[in-house]
Design brief:
58% helix; single chain; mainly alpha; 3 helices; 2 domains
Length: 85
């Protein structure tokens, strides 16, 4: 580490390179950590359900936005009718 400081002290024009390069590396690692912690596609907890997408019922809409809401309502009504029968 002291070698980097000596290099920058000898040639100050390299300081922005190390500052921006280092901040880019730190930002990239922080983004990866953020995605691992908050991402819905990432499963870190190995003791939970192995495949959480299997918990979705056939009548449930797993999409963020669906243009055809009547389809999912009809599908839910049909599944409830089949349960009663």
């Amino acid at each position: 580490m002291s070698g980097v400081f000596q290099l920058v002290k000898a040639n100050p024009a390299l300081a922005p390179l190390f500052i921006f390069g280092g901040s880019g590396i730190v930002g990239g690692v922080a983004y990866i950590g953020h995605c691992l912690k908050n991402g819905p596609d990432v499963i870190i907890n190995k003791s939970a359900a192995e495949k959480p997408w299997n918990r979705i019922q056939p009548h449930e809409n797993a999409k963020l936005w669906s243009p055809n809401k009547e389809f999912w309502q009809d599908r839910k009504n049909r599944s409830e009718e089949l349960k009663r029968a």
